[in-house]
């Protein structure tokens, strides 16, 4: 018999791996997180890649992180603070800008400049989306029931799922109409969805952005409306759909989690890439590190995406062939790029006046849905978008810790960028050309942008994959489409954080409820592991 | 609404009366209404209220939404929109109506002014441009939001006609309730309707924004003899509760805005069944309303005459005089001490078993008293919502 050193070993110190670790350590288990890099965080990191500037160089804004997790892990005590931000804007080619503000009346007037009907419809849209968010919110915390199982817990689970659709208290009793709406929302394209409410191009494209971020779907693709919902179901202090900055960058979230873990005697072994999960008789019992060291644990939890877990660190022969095939076919396509830019000054926009709160939130330059779909078409052809959708923000306006005084940090998320570039693939030259292309596009909307760039980190899906470990650089650890959500995520039959290997669990965003810096997959996995150990903890989340 | 120039520094619009309202608003206490800034209280809610019950009060109601309906199908369109039949409406007549969604749930209420067969104007509290436009599909009728082009004042109270008379508004005393006409007011051509929220004699004056200041000033011209006050939203709230007028998103959730479907209400639940004409040809919500009527309302919005003098704001209603045996049967939506009636009154929803006039229900009132709550178990009698209805309101010629 091996001398078991740990109760649980977690592969990967992303926000979900750390969340799982924190809950298990809180329950009194002996836990170790094994991380490839010298730093933890996965895709929620803050890095000083240019002296004086801190980059949230992967994920960049926070809304989805479940407040119960924040509370349970005492993340405030461990240094985390979320700063709400005001506004978002799309800059038009004709010199005007379209903006949303915190002030409802101001937002109405802002939209009414383009269409009075749309300004009014925005309330109806908001109400309908809010209703869908309320339906989905309790589902996030649930382990998806297996609809094919007759086990009491699955039957009860399905009943629970169904209950939310008829919930009398929280939702006021949904009627047939609302259930139709839910099914439509989860399956239709965002373009078709928005078309039901709005007439103005800029209103539609501004709202559609949330539906394509991180996906390999275009605004006309069925299923894209759900992604919009996925981005709306977060909250900042009860304001559903609001987004904020993590003070000190997104790394502050995982730093706080790591500190919380340590306070419960959890261990983190950084700089230790795992090469293989040790399996005997269909049971996992430990890890082998790249340096040959071995770590033994009763339970192994993988924070890696499902492909990386089962195609890289588990040997194929250990897996049922249909499971292996399902994992191989799991959709996890790279479609996003990222620029992190150190600026010597605040950009001055041609359209948004200095000081207008519209300029302090997320900013966009796509003019209409067709242009957005065109950007997607380029991606399908293996090219980066000629007119990319960008989601850019300047966290340093609100967060005093990100850049030297008087200077600024800009985060630019880019959709779409292919993982496999046509005509010879990615080269260093092509990467720089891509970065330049995006910066030139942004420069068209500013009077000083091109002159104030001090440094830029340019990341294509290749860099995101190689640095963060996300297959193809897919930010969600797998597409958020109905065929890969809930009891189908990541693979039908294995949606309950378990795997075909005994004692091997998954806790990453490849599992329900999916991507975003939410922590729900990690906390749900912890709950399942504790259940299997017949252990209980009493927290706000579990 | 002038939307061409907006600035984040001024999220709210100012009405054409702002120069005057801001001058009178010593309390500098503003209320948001449809994106406008209107006074909540000018200096004393009590005195502002009293002006409407004793002399006359002036309320800036410019933020009301105003929609012009034009075209040869204008009347047909309105008959599809609202639940009552306006086939026989005459020019210069005003109809009060409600409109429902397809499920027979109330969206909003409003006054409908008939200029002629082909031209109507709807005044309402909520934004309805999309609902009206969608409903107008298939009709030769256009819907236009003309809200910013008209400035409006409510001039309410027993002396309102007398003062308009003194201002030489010719023949105003013969304007019948729920009618309107064009008048000359101090050399300005304005529209005056005999409508309002106060349950007393009163008018609403509609004018071009350029005339706003002159019209405002004229109403205060005889202030030395007859004290007219600018009245704020707080005072308006008091008179409308006394008059038994209900308000969307206060007394019930508009079906267009309710997040929770079971918060929507049908006209029978709101005590507005008298506004529904099921004999009329097809109109929006008719099929559902037939079912709602058959079934009878599960709960109903009623008036409550409450013992004691502590307003039952936000109170839950119960069925038993003994608290420990009581079951929840309703909720208060608006409550006040009525100075004119010297009564503790409220509007609230009461369930089926208890909404008959004369029934007794019980309100648990949390009355704040020096950082503590006094919990009062108060008996309430179910009464008509119209607590105050002065005969002056309907007399023609009007009281001068």
Write the layout of secondary structure elements.
The complex is a heterodimer of chains A (542) and B (400).
Chain A: E1 6-11, H1 15-26, E2 31-34, E3 47-50, E4 53-55, H2 67-72, E5 82-84, E6 88-91, E7 97-100, H3 104-112, H4 116-140, H5 152-165, H6 176-187, H7 190-195, H8 201-212, H9 224-232, E8 235-236, E9 239-240, E10 244-246, H10 251-263, E11 267-269, E12 274-280, E13 283-289, E14 294-302, H11 306-313, H12 321-328, E15 336-343, E16 362-364, H13 369-380, E17 389-393, E18 408-415, H14 428-443, E19 453-459, H15 461-468, E20 504-506, H16 520-532
Parallel strand pairs in A: 1-2, 1-14, 2-11, 6-16, 14-20
Antiparallel strand pairs in A: 3-4, 5-10, 6-7, 8-9, 12-13, 13-14, 15-18, 15-19, 17-18
Chain B: E1 13-14, H1 18-24, E2 29-33, E3 36-41, H2 45-54, E4 56-60, E5 65-70, H3 74-81, E6 93-100, E7 106-116, E8 119-124, H4 129-135, E9 142-145, E10 151-156, H5 160-166, E11 180-185, E12 188-193, E13 202-207, H6 212-219, E14 228-230, H7 233-243, H8 286-295, E15 299-306, E16 316-318, E17 328-338, E18 343-351, E19 360-369, E20 372-383
Parallel strand pairs in B: 1-3, 4-14
Antiparallel strand pairs in B: 2-3, 4-10, 5-8, 5-9, 6-7, 7-8, 10-13, 11-12, 12-13, 15-18, 15-20, 16-17, 16-19, 17-18, 19-20
Helix pairs in contact in B: 2-7
